[in-house]
Amino acid sequence: MKHLLIVDDDKTNLTMARNALSDVYRITAVLSGDQALRFLASNIPDLILLDINMPDMDGYEVMTAIRKDDRLQYVPVIFLTADTEPETECRCLEAGAVDFITKPFTPLVMRSRISRVLELEELRSSLRRKLDQKIQEVSDMRERSSHDGLTGLLNRNTASEKTDKILESAKSGAMLMMDMDNFKIINDVYGHAAGDNVLRMFAGTMEDYASDGDILCRLGGDEFIMFIEGDKTKEELGKLAGNLIKDITARILNAGYSTGTTVSVGISRYPADGDSFLSLSSAADKALYFVKQKGKGAYHFYREEKADEKKREESLVDIRYLKDYLARSDANNGSYILNLESFNHVYNFIRRVVERTDSEVHTILFTFSYVVTEAYDSENVLEMFEKAIFTSLRRVDVSTRYSGRQILVVLMNASEKNSVSIAERIMGSFHDIYTGPEVDIRYEIERLERK
Q: Structural domains in the chain?
């Protein structure tokens, strides 16, 4: 049954109204505006019958208080009045009433008018629900179109719009462009579901370090952007980038993905390095590329790179000085151990040499099988094995860590027989220095042939 609140200071009118309506509706009757408002503070009826002429607080005053309460904004109100003047009718409607009933009322007419008002209100409520549903659907569509479906971060277009909007009034800011190192290995070794999990961890770590108003964006793949408004010092930005690298790398390892995956960060600053999302991201991307070329897992500021370039542009050197300068990073003993991207360039260079000279070059692929225990630490195993490689090979040889379970070695000018001896020497050197849990290591040898 629909619930009706009747407000009238005349007990006779209340009794007549109750008798006329109680067989169809649930009735609450009160004698004053004050009683009505106290009741409405904790109840929401389906309709209110409200007398106009009452002492202390008349119907118009009660109506004003009702319309100020957001909970009651859709509750229909019918005024009860003995005044049949057109001005009174007009004032009732202007106050927000949906109808009015003259007193003394006719029960049949009262029931008919109440029924019609409730039917119309039911129709309006249905339309409001449908409209709210459509508004929510549109809002959801906008949310989906502006955010990355996997991580929930902003997509590139939305991040660009929001950043440019902030830059219209901002005095300073900074952009961090982040890229995961060796992310493809996670997909290759553990599957794409694991890759998606790592991307969500990346986004979660960014959110942990973000402040209100920061723009967090997934550009695509394993590339992310954070734009920070405000005047942060170089030291503060460096600390933020370092913490992000440290925490993301730790989370990946703690999740069990032993692939050497870490994060590289390029940093640009507004307004020194750009005045828009496009120019700042371009500068940050160049700084990120610098990190990638220098070994990954670190951060770099765009201005530092430009300063180095400008210094080089303003000076000329002879070839002897340049040879000395480039050789300063040479360890001067042992083999080269490179990251996978740098190794790829060296490998292709060696392959070209083999095609032109038919040099005898062999590759050794070491594969590790671990017995997982509490003392198990794959990173320690790989570090010890790389140390064994470094001390066992010549300076012309090169190696890389392909994943948490494989290391590839290239041996220059080595026969297959010599390659077997070298592989065994590496294994022996490893077992001399390694004292951890048992590790099963197998290797495959193959000659690098001409095409």
A: 3-124 (3.40.50.2300), 156-313 (3.30.70.270), 336-447 (3.30.70.270)
